[in-house]
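Hello, quick one for you while I still have it in my head. My current little project is about how a certain protein chain folds up. You're getting the sequence in one-letter code plus the fold written as tokens. Would you mind checking whether the tokens look sensible for this chain? Here's the protein in full, and shout if anything looks odd to you:
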Amino acid sequence: MLKVSPSTVRRLIAERSLPAHQLCKGAPWVIKALDLEHPEVRNAAQARRVRCLSSSDLRQRELEL
């Protein structure tokens, strides 16, 4: 729903931008659907997406595999 990777979701939880809890250590994170709609959560996720965009430096090239 936030259009970010699972590791980004874990970072958002760690920095307390995304409310979540675990029933016990190592269990999956529980995130309420309503919390995903809060503007603060959406803005935090958007900031992460923007940071991952390609560079505007024209000298930089993509790695071709």
Q: What stands out?
A: Residues 2 and 45 are 6 Å apart (CA to CA). The longest helix spans residues 39-51. The radius of gyration is 15 Å. Helices lie at 6-14, 39-51.
